[in-house]
């Protein structure tokens, strides 16, 4: 699936939660996020280390914007919270 098709699928799934589901900037942002995700996947797939992400489970009600990043099970980037 290409980035635009993936973004459209996400848009359909997330539409009920959007302030303005028909917003062009929202659609463009989803495409940008999918492109960024694809680039990160390519980089980690080519790297000899084992890259994984931490949990998406929130702690004490905090909203996780992005989970921690682990290289060979060692955290190299902490989770980002809202």
What does this structure look like?
The protein has 82 residues and is of the alpha+beta class. Helix content is 43%, strand content 18%. It has helices at 3-14, 24-46; strands at 51-53, 64-66, 69-71, 74-77, 80-81. The strands form two sheets. Strands 1-3-4 form a three-stranded antiparallel sheet, with no helix packed on it. A two-stranded antiparallel sheet has the order 2-5. The longest helix has 23 residues, at 24-46. The radius of gyration is 15 Å and the shape is flat. The model has no long low-confidence stretch (mean pLDDT 87).
Share of helical residues: 40-55%
Care to count the β-strands? 5
**Strand residues, percent:** 15-25%
The protein's oligomeric status is single chain
Low-confidence stretches: none
Largest sheet: 3 strands, antiparallel
Mean pLDDT: 87
Q: Which shape, going by the Cα principal axes?
A: flat
Q: Spatial order of the strands in the main sheet? A: 1-3-4
Describe what is shown at a glance:
The protein has 82 residues and is an alpha+beta fold.
